[in-house]
Design goal:
Blueprint lengths: L2 E2 L10 E7 L11 H4 L4 H14 L2 E7 L3 H14 L2 E5 L8 H10 L3 E5 L21 E4 L4 H15 L1
The protein binds 1,3,4-trihydroxy-5-OXO-cyclohexanecarboxylic acid (DQA).
Length: 158
């Protein structure tokens, strides 16, 4: 589990975005690098914070391997964030609870995947999140997160 939040009280941001990482993404860098790339989660999170600064957006990242913890974190985001970028990992394909949590808090959400889930095993082709997300970015490695953050900010800015 990792939390990255480098915003200082003196920094004023237009929007605040929660980046949520689901199960096994704490192992990025070690985990099947041929599929998921060499970047670690800490490297991706640091780059997201930097990108957020250039977009005038506060970025807070959180990873959990536990479905209920992800649901609780989405609920808490209602009071602190304007939108969510989520890579729910395998829960993408199984979790109605995470989908319902996102629907419940009504925060604009962008779904991201490092790999192209549609090029892989059939069980990865269905996402419970896709139909309630603003949109989905899949298949661009770590850049899926960066593109997802940019797309969410553009959506928030209207
Ligand atoms: C993933 C794709 C999922 O199918 C898988 O279970 C993951 C990672 C991706 O980022 O490509 O854990 O969400």
């Amino acid at each position: 589990m990792a939390i990255v939040d480098v915003a200082t009280p003196s920094e004023s941001h237009e929007f605040s975005v929660l980046v949520l990482h689901g199960p096994n993404l704490n192992l990025l860098g070690l985990r099947e690098p041929g599929i998921y790339g060499a970047a670690t989660l800490a490297q991706i999170d640091a780059r997201l914070v930097e990108l957020g600064k250039s977009l005038n957006v506060r970025v807070q990242s959180f990873q959990s391997n536990h479905e209920g913890v992800l649901v609780d974190t989405i609920h808490a985001a209602r009071d602190t964030h304007h939108g969510i970028v989520i890579n729910a990992g395998a829960y993408t394909h199984t979790s109605i609870a995470i989908r319902d949590a996102i629907s419940a808090v009504q925060l604009p959400t962008v779904e991201v995947h490092l790999s192209n889930i549609y090029k892989r095993e059939e069980f990865r082709h269905h996402s419970h999140l896709a139909s309630i997300a603003v949109g989905q970015v899949s298949g661009f490695g770590a850049s899926s997160y960066y593109l997802g953050l940019q797309a969410l900010v553009a959506h928030l800015e209207g």
